[in-house]
């Protein structure tokens, strides 16, 4: 990740999801970019729940966010809830009103919509015309007597012309303040929109770098002006490309698309998810990375493409398989035991190359211990072949040489070779026509089970 020239704990980043649904793979991308940035810089990562939406925020989602981040390997240094910081926002509102930067507006949504349509018809940009600034005290009193309640807008300083910043991903950026409406910071019911709590929290918590999706680029000019209005240091911004589905559709917490919880339950390794969520849409090739520190060293934000990145779950299968194939037994032993899988290191060495997810090992352990699907003997020739194979079965115990010794003996007795020799034996022993090398599996199956499976086939 791009980081300051000197590694410093003064680097502070934040991830601020709203607990209104479950995190999906698209949410993992900004969380991971922030975590890796802090990890490389020796900085701090704040998890801050944007839970000011009282109707939609739910504790089950808040708990799931923390659980999902921990599963990815993200362990926040600080945890905050915006719902507990209302006093801080109220104090800033008083300051902004006193400075003339926050003003009351009384237009309804329908009135604003009609106003935008009139502007469009005249070829004008749909920018709020600040009509509310012309209201007198008497005008406001009359509107409130009619039952109207104001929403409050932040008065942008249009005299600066443009707001600029050097984006960590996109390079030099410029926003024309004249093209923006004064943003609404407070709704009619007195609740806060995203912008004000976010900026106040970033200022109060000393956030130095704001790394987020490029769908927030247009918000940055407004937020920089709000930082300046509060007299707060300006953070460095970085806007990375966002993830879409393979078909190009946006991801949504509300639909549960590719939720982190569903990926975890499906048996994916967290580092497979991390590798794809971070490396896709960058100039770095998408390969499985063993741990987060290594991933942090691979990527900096300047390598991120400006085009959307498409997430294909099929790519996740490939990465997951590669990670499992490289794992030593000691790293996986406890998880295999929890799945009820035995066989130790010999079993793991035999089957790991055939796994996409760890839970697939259960299928291969069943192949070892039984029962397996019955092998159907099609004709007398097949029965004669299996009878010869039974006769040639080596005495136990089996070892790594037993499979070759057995097949050499069966080949000599029957004249069969290649697929005609090996496939019927595989089907009898495993009930399948594919799988791990039988030289490694036969010692695990053992002579007693191998003999019983041959007898069962001959009895059909």
TrEMBL record:
Any Pfam family the entry gives: tRNA-synt_1c
Subcellular location as annotated: Cytoplasm
Domain Aminoacyl-tRNA synthetase class I anticodon-binding: start-end pairs: 379-458
A GO molecular-function annotation: tRNA binding
UniProt entry tagged with the keyword Cytoplasm: yes
Catalysed reaction, written as an equation: tRNA(Glu) + L-glutamate + ATP = L-glutamyl-tRNA(Glu) + AMP + diphosphate
UniProtKB keywords: Aminoacyl-tRNA synthetase, ATP-binding, Cytoplasm, Ligase, Nucleotide-binding, Protein biosynthesis
Top enzyme class: ligase
Motif 'KMSKS' region mapped to chain: 250-254
Residue ranges of domain Glutamyl/glutaminyl-tRNA synthetase class Ib catalytic in the record: 11-317
Lipid biosynthesis in keyword set: no
GO BP annotations, alphabetical order: glutamyl-tRNA aminoacylation
Binding of ATP, residues: 253
EC number, as in UniProt: 6.1.1.17
Position of sequence motif 'HIGH' region: 17-27
Assembly behavior: Monomer.
PANTHER family according to UniProt: GLUTAMATE--TRNA LIGASE, GLUTAMATE--TRNA LIGASE, MITOCHONDRIAL-RELATED
HAMAP family per UniProt: Glu_tRNA_synth_type1
Chain's role: Catalyzes the attachment of glutamate to tRNA(Glu) in a two-step reaction: glutamate is first activated by ATP to form Glu-AMP and then transferred to the acceptor end of tRNA(Glu).
Protein name: Glutamate--tRNA ligase
Lineage: Bacteria, Pseudomonadati, Pseudomonadota, Alphaproteobacteria, Hyphomicrobiales
């Amino acid at each position: 990740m791009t980081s300051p020239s000197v590694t410093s704990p003064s680097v502070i980043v934040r991830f601020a999801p709203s607990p209104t649904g479950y995190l999906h793979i698209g949410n993992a991308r900004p969380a991971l970019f922030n975590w890796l940035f802090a990890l490389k810089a020796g900085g701090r990562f704040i998890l801050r729940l944007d839970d000011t939406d009282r109707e939609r925020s739910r504790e089950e989602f808040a708990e799931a966010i923390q659980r999902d981040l921990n599963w990815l390997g993200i362990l926040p240094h600080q945890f905050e809830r915006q719902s507990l910081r209302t006093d801080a926002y109220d104090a800033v509102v008083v300051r902004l009103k006193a400075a003339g930067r926050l003003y009351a507006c009384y237009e309804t949504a329908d009135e604003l919509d009609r106003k935008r349509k009139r502007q469009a018809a005249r070829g004008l940009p749909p920018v709020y015309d600040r009509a509310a600034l012309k209201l007198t005290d008497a005008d406001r009193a009359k509107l409130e007597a009619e039952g109207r309640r104001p929403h409050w807008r932040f008065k942008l300083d249009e005299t600066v012309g443009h707001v600029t910043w050097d984006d960590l991903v996109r390079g030099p950026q410029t926003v024309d303040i004249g093209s923006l409406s004064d943003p609404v910071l407070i709704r009619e019911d007195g609740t806060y929109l995203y912008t004000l709590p976010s900026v106040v929290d970033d200022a109060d918590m000393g956030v130095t770098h704001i790394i987020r999706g490029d769908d927030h680029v247009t918000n940055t000019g407004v937020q920089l002006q709000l930082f300046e209005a509060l007299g707060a240091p300006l953070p460095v911004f970085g806007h990375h490309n966002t993830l879409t589905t393979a078909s190009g559709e946006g991801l949504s917490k509300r639909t549960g698309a590719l939720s982190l919880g569903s990926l975890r339950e499906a048996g994916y390794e967290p580092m497979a998810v991390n590798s794809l969520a971070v490396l896709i849409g960058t100039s770095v090739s998408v390969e499985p990375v063993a741990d987060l520190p290594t991933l942090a060293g691979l990527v900096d934000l300047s390598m991120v493409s400006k085009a959307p990145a498409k997430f294909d779950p099929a790519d996740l299968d490939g990465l997951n398989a590669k990670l499992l194939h490289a794992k030593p037994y000691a790293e996986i032993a406890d998880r295999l035991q929890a799945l009820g899988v035995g066989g130790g290191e010999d079993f793991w060495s035999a089957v790991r190359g055939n796994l996409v997810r760890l839970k697939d090992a259960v299928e291969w352990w069943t192949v070892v211990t039984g029962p397996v699907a019955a092998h159907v003997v099609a004709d007398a020739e097949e029965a004669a072949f299996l009878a010869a194979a039974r006769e040639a079965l080596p005495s136990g115990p089996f070892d790594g040489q037993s499979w070759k010794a057995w097949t050499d003996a069966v080949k000599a007795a029957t004249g069969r070779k290649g697929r005609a020799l090996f496939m019927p034996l595989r089907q009898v022993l495993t009930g399948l026509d594919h799988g791990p090398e039988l030289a490694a599996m036969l010692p695990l199956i053992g002579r007693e089970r191998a003999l019983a499976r041959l007898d069962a086939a001959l009895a059909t």
